[in-house]
Amino acid sequence: MKARILALAIPLVALAAWPGARSGVVSPRGGGPYPEAYREVMARRKGAFTLGRAWIDRLERQRRGDGRFREVLSSAETPLLSPQRALAGRLGIPVVLGTYAEITTPPVTNVAVDRLLFTGPWTPGTMTQYWSEVSFGLLEVGGAVYDWVQLAQNETYYTGGIYQGLYPGQSRTGELIREILDARDAAVDFGAYDNDGPDGVPNSGDDDGYVDVLLVVHPTYGAECDNTAHMWSHSWRYSSWPESGGQPYRTNDPAAGGGTVRIDDYIIVPALSCTTGMIEIGVICHEVGHAIGLPDLYDYNGGGNGIGYWGLMGAGNWNTPSSPAHPDAWCREQLGWLNPVEIDWRPRGVSLRPVETNADAVKLPLPTRRFARREYATGVTGLVCGYLGAEAVERGWPGGEGYGNGWRESMIREFSVDESRPVTLRYDVSIDAEDDYDFGMLVLERDGAADTLARYTGRSALRETIDLGARLPAGACDFTLRFLFVSDVSWSDEDGYYNSRGGFSFTIDDVSVSGGGLDYASDFELDAGGWRFDGEPAEYFIVENRRRLGFDANLRGQGMLVYHAENSIAWTDVGNSGGSSNGQCRGLVVEEADGQYNLLAPSYQGGNYGDTGDPFPGSTDNRSFGPTTAPRSHTNGGRPTRIAISGISVGSSGSVSATFAGGMSAPSIASVEPDTIDKLHDGETALDIR
What we know:
Shape: globular
Helix content: 10-25%
Number of domains: 3
Number of strands: 30
Distance between the termini: 35 Å
Strand content: 25-35%
Radius of gyration: 26 Å
Largest sheet: 7 strands, antiparallel
Structural class: alpha+beta
């Protein structure tokens, strides 16, 4: 199937979309199985346990440096070099409490919950203080806690017993939320909690008309404590529950943009701790992490422990529940709360101060390109997006060769034309991708705007002819053509739910541009014809120095932590789970200095949530990391890289120093156009330098 869309002049930055937070249940305390209801719903429903709005779009816009947000930046000093590209502002959260019919005396007061979350004093700190510390003062999380609402039914009615509040049709979590909101709507101005727009003023007209996120508190402890028939803490959308009729909750508060303020994204947590007394901030901080756009980084299949206690979005909320671990370096990078120094092929000495107070980090990219010139059929070469043969096998893909989740891969080429018209583009295109979810596109870019000329989805192969002259201004001009492939967060060869034909996920061949003074053609048999990959490397290592400071006071160890990241996995449904086989590549892996990889093993095979052997030098005094060390700096496909860290040492001030070398090769000339010497040639010569 092929679909054409109207040509739209849109800003170039709109080509990219933030993937949003994936999977929103809290990891079980102390390990153990994840709820069966959760796994069943995840397998059946795209987008289950994800938030739809919250601050996900705001994060994307702020990370891109949208100047309209600069007025919300805190005036406080920050170690960040680019605070204008960091998530910042005030996230106001309405907290509503609901007690089951059989619990007539709630276990804690709304005043106590308010002190815990926002106002304090609270030892060792409130949720407001936590987010201020980890964001270097850029993010203010505040709100108000409203008194308890007596619910009409008992706990089992809402949770569904063994379904733990997670299974639509068996649980009635949506009904619980609706009852509480019905009781509170008349007295609460929910417009005060719609503040995702750039002016920093809630419900001012530049917001989306939705409460950013609702926090619901129930009166017992959470099922995550011991896997019993209580409510399992999670985040999702009210409209995903059948009780909602598929619609967000409509309040009676006028929205500045018209209509009334709506509520959809929610978090639900317990009032009681897993041990004794009142809930701590750990679980709540984890779920708020989803509201600001972060995915889960634990292993929801239970075959390992993800990043364990080393990050809030792993099991760091359990590090000590009252003092949850900071977000890891990867999460900080996604939020803009990090100053990563990117290292190329040239070795460079760097000293990393504690990330808790200085935002220092090192980034080591790998030369992984998933859209490139390659052979896609016997003796036939083109521009191919996807992994072929051994590459897919090495990654453990159940669907075999093809494409993965969360991809955004492109090949581009620049052209210049004179004033003559027409200008005609011809090319062969083949696509085999999930219909109406994953797309190949042709985009024309000029002067910062993008014009989508064609969009392909499903399964098809055809020869295209497009009049570029109709899209170009009169006269001589320059423009760029981009072949772009975009996939959503699930259903691809990576997870096996969609199985494409190898080599034909999205393939371009026999491209020609004629007219406008051009006579360009390439069949890609000899070279890439001037086309080049345009995008971020798929994989990289990111390094931070973690110390026992602030809310990180109870870390399992100290030193240099090395993470292996692949963003498209981390952001999508496979995440840090290792897939159904537990043998697939994960989105974020701690390269444990002792080489034991306890974080990737289940507890019955010696797995744990972090120990003193994980950071460098650590308990094993490991002072190097590279292609031949243990652990090794190999790709997720198992191939050696140039990545190397040597001479790791710890200074008296807590800094960690080392010499770093990145995985990118030194530049080389891939092609020259024209490829012959002509002394009389007075035009341009193009060098494709890789």
